[in-house]
Amino acid sequence: MIKGIGIDIIDMQRIKQSIKRNPRFVQRILTEKEQERYFQLSERRQVEYLAGRFAAKEAFAKSIGTGIGELGFQDIEILSESSGAPTLKARGYEDFSIWVSISHSSDHAVAQVVLEE
């Protein structure tokens, strides 16, 4: 049974500016495992990757009905399967199926999450 859905869109320029303004922004948003992948990417792909993860974490928080706050960015992790498909895990939601989709354009990243019990 579907327990919640969430969607979020983020402007790539906003993420790029946040990275430049605050060097710790990446560490605040991405878990250690996510950061491992982030630092392997080109600068352009880093912005896309971080924006996509930011949007997906916000979308997950919306799917549980709280927004970021009850859970922080570090409590939500989005890694990729060998096929490249994203998978989302969140502290306290291990018994749920969580479906996530992330997409990018040149200007925006968007993510949608479906929380299933």
TrEMBL record:
UniProt KW Lipid biosynthesis keyword: yes
Primary site of residence: cytoplasm
Compartment(s) where it occurs, according to its Swiss-Prot or TrEMBL record: Cytoplasm
Chain positions recorded as Mg(2+) binding sites: 8, 58
EC numbers for this chain: 2.7.8.7
Family (UniProt): Belongs to the P-Pant transferase superfamily. AcpS family.
Protein name as annotated: Holo-[acyl-carrier-protein] synthase
Gene: acpS
